[in-house]
Structure formats: C-alpha cells, structure tokens
DNA sequence: TATGAATGAGCGTTCATTCAT
DNA sequence: TATGAATGAACGCTCATTCAT
C-alpha cells in the first residue's frame, strides 16, 4: 500500500517488485520476526537503503504481501454446482488449493496476527467476509428447506469455517502428511452432515 | 547464584511463585514479545536479578506457565453422560469453561507457538492427546452403531477438534461477544449431526 | 548491517581505521579487560553501533591489532653482519627497538594470551617462527665450528629467546629504568658467551 | 591475609581451609577470570555465603594462595654445592621441581599479574628477591675470580633469571613436552657458559 | 533512484556482593 | 558460623531507521 505508487518509473516498479518477491521468500523461510531487512535486500540484490525507498517499515512490505495473498485466497472461485453438497465440496477444494499454494505465507500471517493488532483487524475483516458469504448460502438453503431452520446461520458458518480453516492450517503448516485426500473427504462429509444435507 | 534450582527454601518457593504469577499477568497484558523482564520483576516486586535466580530465560517461565495451563485444560473432566450427544455436550462445556478461564494465556500460547519450534512441538503433543481421546470415542460409537462406520475416526476427530478449538479461540480471544450460549449450542449441534448422532 | 565486510568504500575504510587506532590507544591505557566498547567509539568519535559495523567483537579488533603488531615485530630486520656476535647484537637491538615502539601493546598481548586460548595459539606460532630462525643460525654456526656442537640448537634457541624476550618485557613493561643500554649490553654478552662465541 | 585469623574457631579454620583448597583447584581449572564464587563454594561443599565469611573478595583468596605459592617456591633450597656450576645446577633443578609442582597455579599468577596492579607489585617484589640473591652470588664469584668482572651482576642476574623463569613457564604451562631433561641441561649449560664458569 | 555507512535506544544476561535468618 | 536468597549496576550486542553522497 505505497503512498506514491503512481510516481514510480518503470525501473522503480521493477525494483519494488524484486523486493516484494524477496521479502516473501525470506518471510516464508525465517518467519517475520527473524527476518532482517538485510536478508531481504540481499535476496533481492538491491542496496540496503533501497528497501526504504519503497517501504517505510518491515511491516509495510508484509502488509502488501498479505493483501495480495488475501486477494488470491478469495478470487479463485469454484465453478457453479448443482447441489449444496457439491457446492460445499467445490468451495472446500478451491480453498484447499489456494491454501496449499500459500501455506508458508499463511503460517506467517498467523504469526503476525498474534502480535500486530492492526494486522489482526485486517485478518478479522477478511475472515468475516468469508463467513458472511457462507452464512448467506446457509440462509438460502434454509429457505429452500435443504438445511434445518433451527441452526443459527451466522454461527454455523463461523464454526464450519473455523473447522475447515484450522484443519488446513494444522495439516499444511504443522503436522499433515503428503496425502490430504482423506482430510478433504472428511471435511466435506462433516460439513454436509452437520448441515443436514443429503450426502 | 543457583541456576534454576530444584531444592528451594520456603522463602525461595514463595518468590518463585510470585514471579510466575507476575509473569502470567504481564504476558496476558502485553504478549510474550512485548514483555520485558523488568515488567515481570516490577510486577512481582523483586529485584531484576531475582528473575534469573529462578528462571534461565523468559522462555523458561512461559514454558512452566504453559505446562500448568495444559494441565488445567486437561484435568477438568465432565461428569459421565448417558448418550454420546450428552457426552459431546459435556466435553464441549468443560472445554469452554477451561478456555474461558485461560483465554488470555491461550492467546499467548498461540503467539509463542508461531515462532518457537520447541514450544510448537509441545503444543502439538498436547493437541494429539486430545484428538486421540476423541478418536477413541468415535471408534467406540462406530462399533456400537451410533456413528456411521464410513467416517475416518482419527480424521473426524482432528477436524471436529479443530472446529471447537478454533471457534473458541476466535470467540474468546478475538471477536466474540458476551454471550457464548449460541456458539456452544451450535458447536454441540454441528458435532452431533456431523457424526450422525440422534440430536 | 554488514558483518565484518571485505569490500569497503573509501569512507568505510577510514572509519574502520579510526576505530582500530582508537582501540589501540584505549587497550594500551586500560588493558583489554577494562576496555569498554564505548571507550573505543568515544575515542574514535563514532556512534556506538559503528563499532559493530566493522568488528564482530572486542576480540576481533584486538586480533587485528595483534596481527599488525606481529608483522611489525617481524619485518624490521637488521643489516647483515660480519660475525655471529655482531649478528646477535644487531638482532637484539632491532628487536629492542620494535619492542620499545610497541611495549604498551605487547603488555596487552601478554594479558590476552593468558585467558584466550585461540590467541595464545597465534602467539605460540609467532614465537615458534622466531625460535626456528634462531635455531637455524645456531646450527649453521655449529657447522662452521663457531658454536659448541654439544648444544641442542632448538633448545638453546628457545632458552635464549626466552631470555631476551622476557627481559625486554620486564624492563619495558614493568620495572625497567630509562636507560636500557646496560641491559642490552648484558643480553648481547650473555648470549654470545652462552654460545661460546668469541666476544 | 585475613584480618581476624586469630579469632577463628577450630571449625572455622577447617572451613576456611576447605575454601582455599577448592579455590586453588577451580582457579587452576578455569583461570581466575572464569572462576565464579559458586564454583568455589560448590567444590568446597560450603554455602555460597560462607565464602564471604572468610574472604572479602575473590582477589583475597587468590592473594592468599599466591602468598603460599611464593613461600613454597622460595623455601625449597638445594643442598650446598662444591662449585658454582654445581650450585647453578642445583638451584635450577630445585626451581624446576617447585615450578612443576605449581605450574597450573603459576599460570594463573601470570594471568592475574597482567591486570591487577597490586598483585603485579607483589610479584615484582618476589622476583626482585630472587634476582637479588642471584646477583649476590654472581658478585661473590666475581670477587673469587670465577666470573668475568666486566659483567653487571644485577643485570646478568635479571637476564638469567628471566631465561630460566620464562623457559620453564613456556615449557610447563604452554608447549613443553613430557621430557624436560634436555631443557634443564641446556639451561644449566647456557647459564654456566654465559657467566664464563668452567663446565 | 541507488547506495551503504552511521546512528543509538533498547534489552537480555551476568555475577560480585549484601543481607536476613 | 552457616546459609542461600536478594540485589542491581554493568555491559555486550542487535537492528530498524536515517542520512549523506
């Protein structure tokens, strides 16, 4: 979120991009806390001072990377589906793919969110957007009679999103194995049954 | 100049406890990263150096607090229940109570787990213990015919534990409201239905 | 934040040199142990952190100063001499001059060698080089019949080097007087006679 | 050099001795600088505070150990000898034996003398006493016509003492081998010849 | 724009010494 | 005497940020 993006020359834009790329790599390898500005500039093959030509702080680069990440996590929508169960399956698979692509950076996102209040806010907003979308789907399905009307749609969306999100986090960032197939099948099944959808 | 002594005098044990208590308070208020040893010693009303009489590092106090915390999160078992659904409800409520008691410190636990590999390992082990216990229950219910036999018990336990755990984390640490009643009811309902238990 | 860089700009090289110079002065005045990094940076009129731009530790500056010192103690060779006795006299005077120039730092060299094993090793190597050179001369003189062949040349070189070295150390660092003439004459005479050379 | 030795009870004297013994061991193993009061008290199996019951500072124990050491290095006199050469040989052997017994502590003596001005003074006085005794012997031998009268007796004594002392230091503390025979023979021979004594 | 040297506040840790019991 | 807990000044090192060129 640079204040003066417009003013960048072609060359400047390239340097900026090199720094962003390098920062992502280093953050993923070392974590935010252990990353030094030197690590980033060395990786980007630019001078130490050049970092501050484009970003005011270490947080700033990270925020921009996270913005791009959230964008990427949101835009890859699955094709439309015939039934709610298929819809759920499609969304879960798409989310899994996006998470897998970005797992290393997602780990850093969790890290930074635990000590940077501002960033925690952004993360919350991003999550709320997801939850809200799910809640709308559940409400729709309740109106259609496909889902039990006694469920609180917002709360159910929260809980199911937490299940999927945290399961993927633990699997892809911490102690998952090579095969996520069973995990994904289980998530699909649990979600569908929890909502009372026909398998 | 004893280093993390085993044998303590009565007086020494008291001072050590004061430091632990103070550390917990400060960690909860400032987070692990922003906590300075001075903050802890000032709060405990002991000299700066006294911290190091009892703990070799800031990590060490935290680890001990976390051990006590895990202990507390594990030992408060609910009364026995008649049906699986009642059992789930009981476990969830007990876990919620324990989480609520310790929410502030749990937030720090998440923080430290994101950058301290050793601690992440301990946390993983603690989580695995919980999951394993749930998996055993699910297997039992499957043998009894109460739960669909096609579900992978270990994976289902993982996912449902992730749901409950992360929901409580988000609610109690981040953006929950004063009333957790609906959340708990939703968690109970979703868990029971996901497993195919009669409401 | 470069760590002990090889490539330096002109300006960087100047600053580095200022720090080295200041370090030598402070070491000579206070000794290695009582020297604080602040003392050095204050003397050099640079910021505290600038010390660490060029040297990783206090030991590192000292090692570099010692390397230069050993270089200086080694390279000032006396003019060639006609007789062994004249040769001895020439070497002794040259060594005395070099020692006098560097007496304050030599004192610190002794200090550091008593507690830093790595440095003691370097010092030993430097001494061995000197002893070996003397041993070669003694062997040559033995072949020429000028020196008694029953003497162990290596051991004699060791002992005589110890005599000269330690005498100068005690004289120039500890309790010598203003006039070293008698000392030098005595060292020349004792060395020559000990080897059985004609006065 | 305790101020209140007289007031020690039998039990107190024993504790004090235990501390002195332990201190010597630890100093020898770790050096003065790396020795901590705890190391000493642990080794002596006394309470931390007991150290300060008997010695005001770390330096104080060391000074007392050094006093005893100097005493031991001085009092073991060789049997009377017939000729100056035999006398020299006898003194050198006795000094070698004493040095060998105390080599580890002598190393620490050198260490402390490099940074403690007060102790350097004591060491100087001890050395002066030795040198003076040698100078007297040389003067006597000069009067007897056994040694060349042109030699400055004080200066020669200084130089020859430096030779023996430093040779033994380097041999026993730094890089000597198991067999000191050749070294001692060389020292005897060099000393005798340097003074012009008949072998 | 690009460079890399300069800055200095900040913090963890050590350990000799004191003191209450 | 003996004990061991309590004290806190001291110092090395880090590293984000600034600045001169």
Automatic annotation (TrEMBL), chains A, B, C, D:
UniProt keywords (A-Z) are: DNA-binding, Transcription, Transcription regulation
Q: Which residues form the HTH tetR-type domain?
A: 13-73
Q: What InterPro entries has UniProt attached to this entry?
A: Homeodomain-like_sf, HTH-type_TetR-like_transc_reg, HTH_TetR, KstR2_TetR_C, Tet_transcr_reg_TetR-rel_C_sf
Q: Which residues bind DNA?
A: 36-55
- Among the Pfam families in the record, one is TetR_C_24
The record's SUPFAM superfamilies line, in alphabetical order, gives:
Homeodomain-like, Tetracyclin repressor-like, C-terminal domain
What's the superkingdom here? Bacteria
Asked if the keyword DNA-binding belongs to this entry, the reply reads yes
Protein name, entry field: TetR/AcrR family transcriptional regulator
Source species, please?
Amycolatopsis acididurans
Q: What is the lineage of its organism?
A: Bacteria, Bacillati, Actinomycetota, Actinomycetes, Pseudonocardiales
């Amino acid at each position: 979120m640079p204040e003066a993006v417009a003013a960048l020359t072609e060359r400047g834009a390239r340097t900026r991009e090199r720094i962003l790329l390098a920062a992502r790599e280093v953050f993923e390898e070392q974590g935010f806390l252990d990353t030094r500005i030197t690590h980033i500039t060395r990786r980007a093959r630019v001078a130490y001072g050049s970092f501050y030509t484009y970003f005011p702080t270490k947080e700033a680069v990270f925020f921009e990377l996270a913005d791009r990440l959230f964008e990427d996590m949101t835009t890859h929508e699955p094709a439309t589906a015939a039934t709610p169960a298929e819809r759920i399956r499609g969304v879960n698979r798409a989310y899994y793919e996006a998470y897998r692509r970005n797992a290393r950076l997602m780990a850093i996102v969790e890290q930074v969110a635990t000590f940077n209040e501002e960033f925690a806010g952004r993360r919350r907003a991003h999550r709320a957007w997801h939850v809200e979308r799910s809640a709308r789907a559940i409400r729709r399905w309740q109106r259609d009679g496909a889902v039990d009307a006694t469920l609180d749609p917002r709360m159910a969306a929260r809980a199911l999103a937490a299940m999927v999100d945290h399961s993927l986090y633990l699997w892809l960032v911490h102690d998952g194995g090579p095969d996520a197939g069973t995990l994904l099948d289980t998530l699909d099944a649990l979600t569908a049954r929890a909502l009372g959808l026909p398998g």
